[in-house]
Amino acid sequence: MNVFIAHAQILRKEPPKERGRSGLMVLKVGKSKKTTEALIQSVNQIIVRIPGHLSDRAAKLEVNSYIEIFGHVGGIVRRSHLSGEQHLGAELVANNIQAAAPVLEGNVEKHLFNRFIAIGLL
Questions:
Q1: Which CATH architecture has domain 2-118?
Q2: How many CB atoms lie within 10 A of CB 18?
Q3: Looking at residue 104, what is its pLDDT?
Q4: Over the stretch 37-73, which tens digit does the pLDDT of each residue have?
Q5: Domain limits of the chain?
Q6: What is the pTM (predicted TM-score) of this model?
Q7: What's the rounded Cα separation, in Å, for the pair 68 and 87?
Q8: Own/partner pairs for 12-18, CB < 8 Å, 24+ apart?
């Protein structure tokens, strides 16, 4: 199983449409960049599926707040309705979420979570 772990800022949340179903979060990971019109600007945004058992916890987190999140990367196969071709993709599914503080440049060593990433415990 492929695992991911991230320190991210919540850009947008979409709650489950029905109780017990999954919701979605758009997260910003990595360093902030200067705003431009370039398409590459969006590469530090990811979409993560939030399972039903984490929906209540996710609802308490505010947009623009920071979180620490880990989960797994699942492979998915989609079939095009138009051409019938199969396309491989990946889906990020959260296993746990917790509130976090923003990382200040130059003080990364004060953040335990980032020290784990720095020493390669992934």
A1: Beta Barrel (2.40)
A2: 8
A3: 67
A4: 665 555 678 889 999 999 999 999 999 999 988 888 8
A5: 2-118
A6: 0.70
A7: 30
A8: 12/63, 13/58, 13/59, 13/61, 13/63, 15/55, 15/58, 15/59, 16/52, 16/55
